[in-house]
Structure formats: structure tokens, C-alpha cells
Design a protein that fits this description.
- The complex is a heterodimer of chains A (about 110) and B (about 120).
- In chain A, about 0% of the residues lie in helices and about 55% in strands.
- With about 110 residues, chain A is mostly beta strands.
- In chain A, strands 2, 4, 5, 9, 10 and 11 form a six-stranded mixed beta sheet that branches.
- Chain B is an all-beta fold.
- In chain B, about 0% of the residues lie in helices and about 60% in strands.
- Chain B is built from no helices and 13 strands.
- In chain B, the strands form three sheets. In chain B, strands 2, 4, 5, 6, 9, 12 and 13 form a seven-stranded mixed beta sheet that branches. In chain B, strands 1-3-8-7 form a four-stranded antiparallel beta sheet, with no helix packed on it. In chain B, strands 10-11 form a two-stranded antiparallel sheet.
- Chain B is globular.
- Classes of the chains: A mainly beta (about 110), B mainly beta (about 120).
- Chains A and B meet through strand 5, strand 9 and strand 10 of A and strand 5, strand 11 and strand 12 of B.
Chain lengths: ~110, ~120
């Protein structure tokens, strides 16, 4: 079956670092995506990992371990505008359709 | 502006009605998608078209019928609306290169409320 797990909610302080974990069990794997979604808005692309290791993009980094079925999104120097939901999505590798399977999302609240 | 656009943004209707949601992208992408996001925020794929050909058709009631007149448009028609159809519907698009599907760009969403 297909299963993607993320914590439902997290809280962090402005200026701090927060790590959002994602574990997955899917029948095929062809890459993992992180999206940010502010309340009432569309998801926007943050990062993509297909090989093991860390991808850094400014204040955001994403890590992947395919053998462990595990990824995390690291947000540094948190700002109030980072309060949003963060969606982990695995691209299904069992069919060549680009299908994304999303986790339920982690709602991050950044406090002053 | 280059983007994925959807109309309408809000749709309130009675049970049993038929309604359509339109989606257009001017990003030059060749693949388009429809997602449903329920009250628990789960984003689930419904349909996908690649170059006007249906490639993903999840377990969705056949009251839902997508139509892709060209690569830049993917519309969603829903017949006999039910209370459980209330959700936010997102359109998305992506570019394929070398057989690989790149990141998806999402439209602003259509909030459907069935009374």
C-alpha cells in the first residue's frame, strides 16, 4: 500500500530552526517533493530529492534516505511568514504517470 | 502573468446540480492534473492528462468527468452534486522532459460548497 506520515502540527519560535519529518512506504519511488501551503492558498513547490543526501536552497534544506524511506525539511532562521502547512509528496515510481502521493501535511506555527 | 488559473474561485450550489470548473495554464506544460483537498487537508489526485490523453484516473465516482480540449486547458464537470463533494479542488500542471515529470505548479483552487 501507499502510506506517507508526517506530524500533524508543530510549533517553533521566530529565528529558530525546525525540522519536519516525513516517512513513506510506497510501492514505487521516483522522487520526493516538499510543498508549502499557506491557509487558503495553493501549494507551492519548495524542494525535490531523488538521490540520497541533502539539498540546500537558501533557508530551506531537504534530506532524503531512500533505504530508510525517510525525508526531512529543515527550515532555518524562521520567520513569521513561514507559518503554513508543509506537504511531503512521493512521486509514484510504479507507473510512469508522474502521480504524486501526498501526506496529510504538517501545520507549522511560528511564534514571536 | 505566467500561471495556472482556475474559475470560479468559489462555487456554492445545491445538491443534485451539475457544475463545471475550468483550468488554464500558460506555462507551456504538457501535463495537467485535478486534485481534491478535503477538510482534513489531504490532497488527493483525481485525474491527469498528458498531451490531452488521460493517464491517471483514480477511484473517482463517474459523476466526475474531466475534459481536455487542448494541452493548456483541463476542465472538470461534476454531475448530480452531493454533500461529500464539498472540498477545495486544485488544478496543477507540469512539464515532462525525457519521460520524467517535473514539479507541479498549482492553481489557486476552487472552493466548492454543496448545500
Amino acid at each position: 500500500g501507499q502510506n506517507i506520515d508526517q506530524p500533524t502540527e508543530m510549533t517553533a519560535t521566530e529565528g529558530a530552526i525546525v525540522q519536519i519529518n516525513c516517512t513513506y512506504q510506497t510501492s514505487g519511488f521516483n522522487g520526493l517533493f516538499w510543498y508549502q501551503q499557506h491557509a487558503g492558498e495553493a501549494p507551492t513547490f519548495l524542494s525535490y530529492n531523488v538521490l540520497d543526501g541533502l539539498e540546500e536552497k537558501g533557508r530551506f534544506s531537504s534530506f532524503l534516505s531512500r533505504s530508510k524511506g525517510y525525508s526531512y525539511l529543515l527550515l532555518k532562521e524562521l520567520q513569521m511568514k513561514d507559518s503554513a502547512s508543509y506537504l511531503c509528496a512521493v512521486r509514484d515510481g510504479s507507473s510512469n504517470t508522474g502521480k504524486l502521493i501526498f501526506g496529510q501535511g504538517t501545520t507549522l506555527q511560528v511564534k514571536p | 502573468d505566467t500561471a495556472v488559473s482556475q474559475t470560479p474561485k468559489y462555487l456554492v450550489t445545491q445538491m443534485g446540480n451539475d457544475k463545471s470548473i475550468k483550468c488554464e495554464q500558460n506555462l507551456g506544460h504538457d501535463t495537467m492534473y485535478w486534485y481534491k483537498q478535503d477538510s482534513k487537508k489531504f490532497l488527493k489526485i483525481m485525474f491527469s492528462y498528458n498531451n490531452k490523453e488521460l493517464i491517471i484516473n483514480e477511484t473517482v465516482p463517474n459523476r466526475f468527468s474531466p475534459k481536455s480540449p487542448d494541452k493548456a486547458h483541463l476542465n472538470l464537470h461534476i454531475n448530480s452534486l452531493e454533500l461529500g463533494d464539498s472540498a477545495v479542488y486544485f488544478c496543477a500542471s507540469s512539464h515532462t522532459s525525457g519521460g520524467a515529470y517535473n514539479e507541479q505548479f498549482f492553481g489557486p483552487g476552487t472552493r466548492l460548497t454543496v448545500l
